[in-house]
Design brief:
heterodimer; A: alpha+beta; Ubiquitin-like (UB roll); DNA polymerase, domain 1; 2 domains; B: alpha+beta; Uridine Diphospho-n-acetylenolpyruvylglucosamine Reductase, domain 3; Enolase-like, domain 1; about 35% helix; binds flavin-adenine dinucleotide; binds FE2/S2 (inorganic) cluster; FAD binding (chain B); flavoprotein (chain B); CO_DH_flav_C_dom_sf (chain B)
Chain lengths: ~160, ~280
């Protein structure tokens, strides 16, 4: 067992973990952040996307021990004072989800896309989301939601 | 799926990492960005007793200029290499290829060194590294040695990096003023290359003065399209002349046949993609 200290959604956690534990399992099973989900076994789907020190990663493809001393933001850390993050709000308004399974990862990656490039073209949004699969929506409304937030000129990088 | 149990160490210097590797012998595995290794461990295709994580070794990160070379630390992530102005200015074809690797999340974690040591024949970093005449700096208990690109890639998933050794950096001769393009052929988003071509050329007054072409997934290692390179030098940078010079792109290759395409299909793709890559490199 190895002791790790990780800041998750603004709170510091210190735990003994097996080195083989994946970050996604640490977040879900130890910290209780079940908002972050697992959608595949191959690191293809992006459902498990979180931010590690402000950059998006697939938490099924990172060991919890690799996050020791670092900062993680999950979908559960986005809303502030009961108010949805603008990207969450836009997904809601644009009907950018159906079953919702891809949504936690999709929103985290969508925020990363805008942090990287606050004014992306439609093509740049689609390419930026290429590591996130959605089986329901056909992507159009997801792209619209990202465009809506970009149009507001608010990338909220500081909040994630 | 989770990996089998292993012991974990995260040294903070190359010297400590080499000691940890030497102690564990052939039961140790080096962890870089983990974007290939963790899927392998999760599928239990490998079950090392010890994992030596290079993630906390600062000296292995970053891009710097050293005279007429660019030096990229092995643990530099794709994202950091992409953000480097020096890479886009002096190694345009590498910049172009890195943009095509996987997806943003994987580019935030995966490293240039990890990709090169992993040496997947469909990987996108080997061909541009080969085309640029990259030198590989390998460090072991006996010290440091430098291996030429032509000797680095040995076979499928096999490089000159021996057990107990680390790739610590790559040194790229600056290709300042050269155009570069990476033409990657896939059928769906976010796929490994079926075939891809890394082209870098220097155009002087409408004529191709120098050219280097690396091929991805046309054999068990990245390959140079030497016949095309020879035909390009001195040719005019026109559509017609480039098309003619690129016809020989599959010469001397031994592409795989798999679910994505037969060897013949890949041989047919190579000249087409090479022409596109060279045209774009010559135009930029
Ligand atoms: C869904 C998905 C899609 C992908 N798509 C692509 C793609 O389109 N194109 C592409 O090129 N790649 C793709 N990859 C692979 C990705 O590029 C990997 O990041 C890369 O192959 C390995 O780099 P890494 O830093 O993650 O190394 P790791 O996975 O940590 O290590 C890979 C291997 O190299 C060894 N190693 C690593 N660094 C060193 C070192 N410095 N010295 C000695 N040994 C070392 C390790 O022991 C291991 O055997 C994809 C991966 C995933 C999960
Ligand atoms: S669960 Fe991580 S990418 Fe699918
Ligand atoms: S909403 Fe169902 S997978 Fe995206």
């Amino acid at each position: 067992m190895t002791r790790i200290t990780v800041t998750v959604d603004g709170t510091s956690y210190s735990d003994e973990v097996e080195p083989r534990m994946l970050l996604v399992h640490y977040l879900r099973e130890v910290v209780g952040k079940t908002g972050t989900v697992i959608g595949c076994d191959t690191s293809n789907c992006g459902a498990c996307t979180v931010h590690l020190d402000g950059r998006s990663v697939k938490s099924c493809n990172v060991l919890a021990v690799q996050a020791d001393g670092h900062e993680v933001t999950t979908i559960e850390g986005l809303s502030q004072n009961g108010e949805l993050h603008p990207m969450q709000q836009a997904f809601h308004e644009c009907h950018a989800l159906q079953c919702g399974y891809c949504t936690p990862g999709m929103i985290m990656q969508a925020i990363d896309v805008l942090n990287d490039n606050p004014d992306p073209s439609e093509e740049e949004i689609r390419v930026g989301l290429e590591g996130n699969l959605c089986r329901c929506t056909g992507y159009h409304n997801i792209v619209r939601a990202v465009q809506q937030v970009a149009g507001q000129g608010e990338t909220s990088g500081a909040r994630s | 799926m989770i990996p089998a149990s292993f012991d974990y160490v995260a040294p903070t210097s190359v010297a400590e990492a080499l000691t940890a590797l030497a102690e564990a012998g052939d039961d140790a595995k080096v962890l870089a960005g983990g974007q290939s290794l963790l899927p392998i461990l999760r599928m239990r295709l490998n079950a090392p007793e010890k994992v030596v994580d290079l993630g906390r070794i600062e000296e292995l990160r970053g891009v710097r200029e050293d005279g007429d070379h660019l030096v990229i630390g092995a643990m530099t992530t794709y994202a950091d290499a992409l953000a480097s102005a020096a890479v886009s200015e002096h190694a345009a074809v590498l910049h172009a290829a890195l943009k095509e690797v996987a997806d943003p999340q994987i580019r935030h974690r995966g490293t240039v060194g990890g990709a090169l040591v992993h040496a997947d024949p469909a990987g996108d970093v080997g061909a541009p590294a080969l085309a640029l005449g990259t030198e590989f700096v390998i460090t072991g208990s006996g010290g440091e040695r430098t291996v030429a690109a032509s000797d680095f890639f040995q076979d499928l998933f096999e490089t000159a990096v021996a057990e107990g050794e680390l790739l610590t950096a790559i040194r790229i001769p600056k290709h300042t003023g050269w155009g570069g393009h990476y033409e990657k052929f896939v059928r769906v988003a976010h796929q490994w290359s079926i075939v891809a071509v890394a082209a870098t050329v220097r155009v002087d007054g409408g004529t191709i003065a120098e050219a280097a072409i690396g091929l991805t997934n046309m054999g068990s290692t990245p390959l140079r399209a030497t016949a095309v390179e020879a035909a390009l030098v001195g040719a005019s940078a026109s559509d017609e002349a480039i098309r003619e010079a690129c016809a020989a792109a599959a010469e001397g290759t031994d592409p795989p046949s798999d679910l994505n395409g037969s060897a013949d299909y890949r041989r047919a793709l190579a000249p087409v993609l090479t022409r596109r890559a060279v045209l774009a490199a010559a135009g930029g």
